[in-house]
Amino acid sequence: MPSLNGLPLSCEEILGRYGPLVYRMAIQGTGNRSDGEDVAQEVFVSLIQSDPTFTDDTHLRAWLIRATANRCKSWGRSPWRKRTVPLDTFRDAASPPSDGSGVLEAVAALPGKYRWPVYLHYIEGYTAGEIGQLLGCPRNTVLSRLSRARAKLKDALKEEWS
Amino acid sequence: MNSEQRYRSTLGGMTPSPAWQKETLEAMQAAQTRRKRPSLRRPLTFAAAAAVLVLGITGGVWWSSRMEPDPDGPGVAQTPEPAVTPTPTTQPSAGWGESFLLVADLAQQLGSNPTAGHTYELTQLPVYTNPLPTERDQRAAIQRWAAELGYTISGPDSYTWRTSSGESTMGRDPVLEATCTDGTRLQLTGLSTLAIYDAPDLSAVAESVKLILLRNGASDTTGTPELAEESLTTYNFDGEAQTTQVTFLTTPDASVADRLYSYSFWRMELTQSQLTIYLPPADSGTVYPLRSPDDAQAAFRAGDYWGGCTTAYPDQAQILFVCLEYDITPGQPYLQPVYRILYTQSYWDELVADWVFDGVDPSPYMGLGIAYVPAIAPEYQDEVPYQRYFNDGLAHHTPEDLP
């Protein structure tokens, strides 16, 4: 089993603590709830199969976030998916469940390098420094990307972001 | 409700359904029963490459495809000690929790530091105070810089001031930001760093700053300074390069200590989106004795070092390069010299493959750690305490952190 600080984690503990994080991120990354649920499940199964050892909660979260981002990216270009998903559905896949305001679609339409910092900051509450560690880039790069993302969202939504 | 609030309430409110949780739990439990430990993905090919580099060091000559021909430059290194390549005894899984840079070539972080090959010659250096300015002090400074750069600050309402340069865990320097009439933003951190963002033509600003460096630096440095450059590159996990073009003043005939001063404090860094000017200290400094390069390496190997990179096994690290520089990062009470130690671990090659995003070929990259060790002799460090922050946190690693 994956372990945290030397203590093994049960499947129930993992799902209870980190389920919402991976679930939301996968929906944001794939663009719809159905695909997001599949990706999120894959991430947790992969965690069990990989059996890593984590020194603290931050590293476990970092692992899950990287794994989810990776799977979301590969999900969109999966040959199986491209063969089996109708073209119109696939074209719409960048749009997550709508709240009618277009805000989720606007975030989903951002390039990944802007979308993930927005998601991690505004939904998961990570600081720019923490996001930098998760994505492997300096804090200033994260701040710059958040700034540019806000400008793009302002253009797309025709109103100020925050 | 604005768009940010709608985003938070819509996506943040999504929770896994009981059906999905049940199905996922069953899938995890099924995976647990059939789990087998994956084999290592690739052999530790980097160990051999690192050994070659270490061999280069022990011979006293740095090899680099980007090496400058200048015999006094970083191409010739008087290294502190022949680096020893310990036999790695750690497992790749030990790398969880370690942190390092991705580079394609060691040369991407070597730079043109004037102390390369001269670290033993420096036995003392000045330490400068980094005063805590008031908002009024900062306004006066940013207005001087705006005038010098040809900017017009939009008006009294365009200033924003905050007490720290980062989030709550970050240092002590207050930050003043001003927006100019063309949309350019000037951000002054303490009195030591001026960043320029959102300039319509950042490269044109860079040319102006170079002239300012030459003009103003002539009165603060010995001899007739010239412009010199270095380039520092790292890669994100998605493979995107982050390159910083650095311009600094140098005086070829000046002492190593004087060249280190110009390298650190008459300096401009340019990235794709930002230009940063490092401003010289206001005082003339107080000279302190330095610890030796050997002592600094011993401190690192014992686990006592600073910086965003970290390893659980510093005693096994392969030290590739050592130089001295002034720490000019925000948040510290004194601007003081530090040893910059570049190192790697043989098992990081495996981690690189794990960490890069899907679709990114890990083979061009190597993991490179940078450890910073205060250069002031330990018996004087209480007088000039050292602090370094990374991504908002105090980045001090101690022997107690080691497994």
What would you say about this model in short?
The complex is a heterodimer of chains A (162) and B (403). Chain A is mainly alpha-helical and 162 residues long.
Sequence-ordered SSE layout with sheet pairings:
The complex is a heterodimer of chains A (162) and B (403).
Chain A: E1 3-4, E2 7-8, H1 11-30, H2 33-50, E3 53-54, H3 57-76, H4 79-84, H5 87-91, H6 103-108, H7 112-122, H8 128-135, H9 139-157
Parallel strand pairs in A: 1-3
Antiparallel strand pairs in A: 1-2
Helix pairs in contact in A: 1-2, 1-3, 2-3, 7-9, 8-9
Chain B: H1 3-11, H2 18-34, H3 45-58, E1 101-103, E2 124-129, H4 135-149, E3 159-162, E4 175-179, E5 185-189, E6 193-197, H5 202-217, E7 226-235, E8 241-250, H6 256-265, E9 267-270, E10 274-278, E11 286-289, H7 293-301, E12 305-306, E13 318-326, E14 334-335, E15 337-344, H8 348-355, E16 366-374, E17 389-390, E18 393-394, E19 396-397
Antiparallel strand pairs in B: 1-16, 2-11, 2-14, 3-4, 4-5, 5-6, 6-10, 7-8, 8-9, 9-10, 12-19, 13-15, 15-16, 17-18
Percent strand of chain B equals 15-25%
- Report the span from N to C terminus of chain A: 41 Å
Number of helices of chain A: 9
Which class do the helix and strand fractions of chain A yield?
mainly alpha
Total count of strands of chain B: 19
Number of strands of chain A: 3
User: Helical percent range of chain B?
Assistant: 10-25%
H/E order of the elements of chain B?
HHHEEHEEEEHEEHEEEHEEEEHEEEE
Radius of gyration of chain A: 16 Å
Taking pLDDT < 50 over at least 5 consecutive residues as the criterion, the unreliable ranges of chain B are 36-93
Major sheet of chain B: order of its strands? 3-4-5-6-10-9-8-7
Structure annotation, total helices of chain B: 8
Spatial strand sequence of the major β-sheet of chain A: 2-1-3
Which percent range describes the beta-strand content of chain A? under 5%
The pLDDT mean of chain B sits at: 82
Our Rg estimate of chain B from Cα atoms comes to: 24 Å
